[in-house]
Design goal:
Distance between the termini: 76 Å
Radius of gyration: 25 Å
Low-confidence stretches: none
Strand content: 5-15%
Helix content: 55-70%
Mean pLDDT: 92
Order of helices and strands: EEEEHHHHHHHHH
Number of strands: 4
Length: 204
């Protein structure tokens, strides 16, 4: 089996490993076994390959658990973290399954936190749905949560409050121009046009 190691920069503390020209992940230079000759192409046996594989899994596990300990993350985000480090798909799948089984990764829990965070920022339902789709989480997971957490009446009150503040910042603007600008601003924030029109009428 052919082993090749490369570094992104001369001062890099991590090396990317290739086994038979297949990228299998990164390892810190300080944990490399003595048989590895950095930056050289060399032949290794099955036992040496197995030792490297175990080190890669251990390092990937440490990276992922540290990432999840700092903040809540989705399955997609967790996979992307390991993909960027070049880890083999088999390693990634095994670690993701382990973390889901232990509830370290829970897309429903992440979706609830994500929805609550954006609702507090006062964005519209349309934009929030768009942002949830960007998270690559199944709609069957987040849609019921969104329906449960989003209160139309509270959303309307939030919109009116934001609109009142927005209008107060526009100095002596002609009525039609103010209306166009206000509607455009809140459409961009993801609010439904009928809701915007209702808030506009309420503030008149």
């Amino acid at each position: 089996m052919t082993l090749r190691t490369i570094a992104k920069t001369e001062k890099s503390r991590d090396l990317t490993l290739f086994l038979d020209d297949r990228c299998v992940g990164t390892l810190p230079v300080k944990v490399l076994p003595l048989f590895v000759r950095p930056f050289q192409v060399q032949e290794i046996d099955r036992e040496e390959a197995a030792e490297l594989w175990a080190l890669l899994k251990s390092h990937a596990r440490s990276l992922l658990l540290y990432y999840l300990a700092k903040a809540e993350h989705s399955e997609h985000q967790s996979r992307e973290l390991l993909k960027k480090r070049g880890f083999d798909k088999a390693i990634i799948d095994e670690l993701i399954d382990y973390c889901k089984e232990k509830k370290f990764i829970d897309d429903a829990r992440y979706s609830e936190i994500y929805i609550r965070s954006w609702l507090k920022r006062g964005i519209g339902l349309k934009l929030l749905r768009s942002k949830l789709r960007e998270q690559r989480i199944a709609q069957s997971i987040w849609e019921p949560l969104l329906e449960e957490m989003y209160e139309p009446e509270a959303g309307f009150d939030t919109l009116k409050t934001q609109m009142q503040k927005y209008i107060s910042r526009q100095k002596e603007m002609p009525y039609n121009k103010l209306k166009d600008k206000t509607f455009g601003y809140f459409v961009n924030k993801g609010f439904d046009l009928d809701l915007i029109a209702g808030a506009w009428r309420a503030l008149q």
